[in-house]
Structure formats: C-alpha cells, structure tokens
Design goal:
There is one protein chain. This protein is an alpha/beta fold and 280 residues long. The protein is 40% helix and 15% strand. The protein is built from ten helices and ten strands.
Length: 280
C-alpha cells in the first residue's frame, strides 16, 4: 500500500519511480510554472512530468534548479520525465529530440523518456532510439505513452528492452481495464495522465458521496483510487494550495466497496484523442 508522498514503485529494471508527481500539461513557460515546480518540490513531490510538445521544458528546468537550491536536495533526489513528440519519431530524430529536451531542461540525463503517441509506422524506430539511449546510460528508464495493448504487443515483438512505463489517459470514466491488466502481467508500470478528467469529474454524484464519507475532496478520492489500483498518478496544478491538497491522499484508504463503485463508473470516455484514431 502506498503510504506517503515519496513512496516509489520499482520498475522492471530496478529503478525507483515515485507513485505521485506533478504534471505540467498546458502550463505555459514562465514564472507561474517555475513557482509551481518549486512549490511541488518544497512540499515533498519528487516526480515531475513534462514533454517536448508542452513547450515548457525550459521553465520546468529553471524550477528544478531553483527548487534544488531552496531545499538543499540534489538532482538525484528527483525523477524527471519528458516525451518525444510525433514529428521526431525516427531513429536519429528521436535521439536529437532527446538532446534538445535535455538542453532545454538544463539536465544531464532524464529519469524516464517516453514515446508520446503510437504513430503508425514510426514508433518502432523511435523505440530503437530509446533503447540506444538507455544502453548508453543516457536515460535511467524508457517507456511509452498512449499505447494500447496491440501497440505494446507490436513493440514487444521486436524489442531488446521492454517498455518500463506506459502513461495513458486514465480516470474513473476511462479505467483502461485491458491495458492495465496487460501492463501488470507484462511488468510494465501504468501511469495516469488527466487523472481528474480535466476537472469534469468533480461534480460526479457517486464520487461526491464517497468523498463526503471520507471527509476528502473528489479529487483526492480519484487520486487515491489511482494509487490503490497500482497506477502512478501525476495531477496538474499551478496553485500551491492545490498542489498540497492533491497530495493529501495518504491518510485514508478506500474500501473494497468504494473501489467497486468507482470502477463501475467506466464509460470508456476520453477527453484526449483516441490512440487508434488520431491525427497529429
């Protein structure tokens, strides 16, 4: 059971990945993001998730540097993730994209690098590039994002190194049962993006009733549900009070009945693109 904010899951290669982190999707470059990163680290977060397409790696990097000075932590205390965008899913292009992300972040390595989307005909060459980066010791762990079971099976058919993480849209209305079960059986850690469905679940009556029973917010109930399902979660916020509130999920446990009710909300409903039918 995940009992504190800095608890970690052990990836297939032995690397420790925090169960809980800060996501920064749609947060623009600038002081607000720098301060959000600092607030997260100051309040105990150790995982930060960005991507090339977010166009905010520079501010994330600045926030990391300032946070380390403020807290006296070291780079090794943090777990930093970025992702290669669709336009760079060739072997050489992916390696170049990694170098660009490192430069923008101002880091010497990433803890986790992901293929952002399974673009047909391109992601296997990109995976070869990630394997090279990993074998050269340039990145601590490699994985994918938005991959469905058949994408994972396709990668695994030829991979020298299997993906260690699959980051997908995951929330009570999209519980990704098939993907979650496949990842669990294959030793791939599932990670949730948009765990709060971009706020669309906060007025759900079932979740509100469970929240009232536990004296928690709906957001906290959802994030606790993620963790109890064995799913790493990275809620987004730029407000320090919300960053603190989101992480206040380690002092209670959802009952089996609670979990069943939440699991029963699934409608296979997405707020993001369908990985099998998207055009970027």
């Amino acid at each position: 059971m995940t009992t504190h904010l800095q608890a970690t899951t052990t990836l297939a290669n032995g690397i420790q990945m925090p169960w809980f982190g800060l996501g920064v999707f749609k947060v623009e470059e600038g002081a607000e993001l720098v301060e959000a990163v600092k607030a997260a680290v100051r309040n105990g977060y150790r995982s930060l998730d960005t991507a090339a397409i977010y166009n905010n790696e520079t501010s994330v990097g600045q926030g990391i540097r300032e946070a380390l000075l403020e807290t006296k932590l070291t780079r090794e205390d943090l777990f930093v993730t970025s992702k290669v965008w669709n336009a760079d899913l060739g072997y050489e292009a992916t390696i170049a994209a990694y170098e660009t992300s490192l430069k923008k972040l101002g880091l010497n390595y990433l803890d986790l690098y992901l293929i952002h989307w399974p673009v047909k005909g391109k992601y296997k060459e990109a995976w070869r590039a990630l394997e090279t980066l990993y074998k050269e010791g340039r990145v601590k762990a490699i994985g994918v994002s938005n991959f469905q079971v058949h994408h994972l099976e396709d990668v695994l058919a030829d991979a020298e190194i299997k993906p260690m993480v699959n980051q997908v849209e995951y929330h009570p209305l999209l519980n990704q049962k098939a993907v979650r079960e496949f990842c669990q059986s294959s030793g791939i850690q599932l990670e949730a993006w948009s765990p709060l469905m971009q706020g669309l679940l906060l007025d759900n009556d079932v979740l509100k009733a469970i929240a009232d029973q536990h004296g928690k917010s709906v957001a906290q109930i959802i994030l606790r549900w993620d963790l109890q399902n064995g799913v790493v979660t990275i809620p987004k916020s730029t407000k320090e009070h919300r960053i603190i509130e989101n992480a206040n999920v380690f002092d209670f446990t959802l009952t089996d009945a609670d979990m069943a009710l939440i699991n029963g909300l699934n409608l296979d409903q997405r707020v993001g693109p369908d990985p099998d039918n998207f055009d970027f």
